[in-house]
Amino acid sequence: MSAHATPRPGIPADETDAHTWTGRARQWLLKKLPPDKLLPEDQPSYVASWAYVFGMGAIASLLWIIISGIVLGLNGPQWYHVSSLGSFVNSTHLWSVELFFIFMVVHLWLKFWMAAWRGGRVLTWITGVLSFVVSIVAAFTGYLLQTNFDSQWIAFEAKDALNAVGVGAWFNVANVGQLFAWHITLLPLAVGAVVVLHVLLVRVHGVAPPLEAAESDAQLLHHRPESTQSPESTESRDAVR
Amino acid sequence: MTGWLVASLGTVGDGTYFGWDGFTIQSGNLIVIVVMIILFVLALVLPFPGGKRRK
Amino acid sequence: MTRKSSSISWRKTDDLASRPWTGSVREYDLIKELIIGVVVVGLLVLGVSAIFGSPDEPSVSLKAWATAAPADFVATATKELAGTSDSAGYGPPYNPTPDASQKIGPVDLQSLSGVRLPVDNGNDFVIAPLATLPSPPADLALWTAATDQQRSDWAAAYSIALAAAPDNDPAKVADGDYGPAPALTGALLDMARQGSLDGVLQNGGNFYNTDYTRSLLFLGDGSYFPGLAASQHLSGDQWGVMNETGDTPGQSWLWLFSLLYQVEPFKSAANADALVVVTMLVLTALLTFLPFIPGLRSLPRKIPLHRLVWKDYYRNR
After folding, report:
1. Among C23, C254, C289, whose Cβ lies nearest the Cβ of A220?
2. Do C26 and B14 count as a contact with CB atoms less than 8 A apart?
3. Measured distance CA(C87)–CA(C35) in Å, rounded
4. Domain containing A177: what range?
5. In a domain, A57, yes or no
6. Does the distance separating the beta carbons of C228 and B14 come in below 8 Å?
7. Per-residue pLDDT for A239 more than 50?
8. Nearest chain B Cα to A238, which residue?
9. Least C-beta-crowded within 10 Å: which of A79, C145, C165, C214?
10. Contact by Cβ (8 Å): A156, C228
């Protein structure tokens, strides 16, 4: 209500005077993820390896999956069988999925060997695995939606595994109407939501430092933080600049 | 693009399979797995081009 | 170089991994990396798609089945009448066949849903479609008037006779008391060859349809459709879950799911599907919660591949 509760443009939100739920939510968000953490212009010096490009590769692939999927979805399921343009768009949908999984799996392998869950980053690991699992289900429903011999057979085979654990009665792989709902709305939204959460968590926590990094490393020695410093402070990094 | 309404035996093309002892793998899947392993190894060993350092 | 062993703990403590980095930094441009990524991946996708395309094997219709393998079609229709086909004895969610569900110990997840997608094989696949014909076969009335026992006796006898006939040819079956079974299955074969069975079985008299459960179960009860799949290495015992038709890569990420079906104790288990799914759920949970699992989470320290990832950092410290 009062004017001083609203931060003036260019001045960071005052940490003390928000009293509405919205104001507190904004404060919490800005504290967790200030804009320079969300869209950083620098990274720790150890972020210098090809190991760091695969997450972005997976995200880029996901964008291509979504674009090609929208074109396929808008034209309906029969289009790609009879149109050469449709067939090509279907190919790009397939290959962007293959690339998505290739990048995601290499990313997962690398993050395991980097023990990237260290230092409070466990939820980043969990959301990463979750996005892999949800993507597998999304891809599976895509294979069922091909409306060709492959999808016929996959539906016939897959029903047994789903029925055996009591899921097939509700998730009926032979019901193409249900599959459209899953593949075109629910699962893409789920993959998107988990991936966004995963990326935001990476930005909140920053990139995990090398496993054997120590306080005595040259990269840290000249700007050793005070032990009393709050973990959220960015003062010393600003000083480095 | 012909005849998606009509299926016939002859149109089903054979894939290439490699196998040992009941373990078989289709060529496409094999290539994908090999590509992932190669990318993993390259990511570890290839030198990363040095970015501008800010001190 | 001896340093104290670093922590692989997921916990947020006061160590280096838990604090914001305060050391030296390098320039980094998030948006630029994203744009470069989208362009590079886009070129890759377009290039690979142009070179390899994607497979699209036409679907198999009941018409194609009846035309290519009429003996198999008639034998399958007869089994549906006798109630001896695979799907007739499947159990939930299609029918209430006792002791058909896959259990893990005393846990019977398959039966939890009950018969939620009811399929009455003989009636749904054979009798009801024939009744929709402009002039249904006269034997249809004979069948509907008979007792359940009489019907299954006729169909079972005809099923055995078909299996014994040369080439399983319905025209070469030995004489016997098969009632209306030969006439009904023969009429269904004609109906399928003309292409009208596909529509009737799929839409059940409605204009719209998106549910292919009945058609798929009927197709799968024969040996023609599974035979086509086997010739494409798509069967469950051929790692088929992860294979695509031709040489195009399929769902290679299902390799472990596929592998379990090839090895004991899953391979010969009657409840293989339930066992495989539950095993995969457990393994997925292990991967998800790996940072909490002692031993597994220490592997990155014991096998220090990270020294390659951070070789520049370790060299310069």
Report:
1. C23
2. no
3. 52
4. 117-207
5. yes
6. no
7. no
8. B55
9. C145
10. no
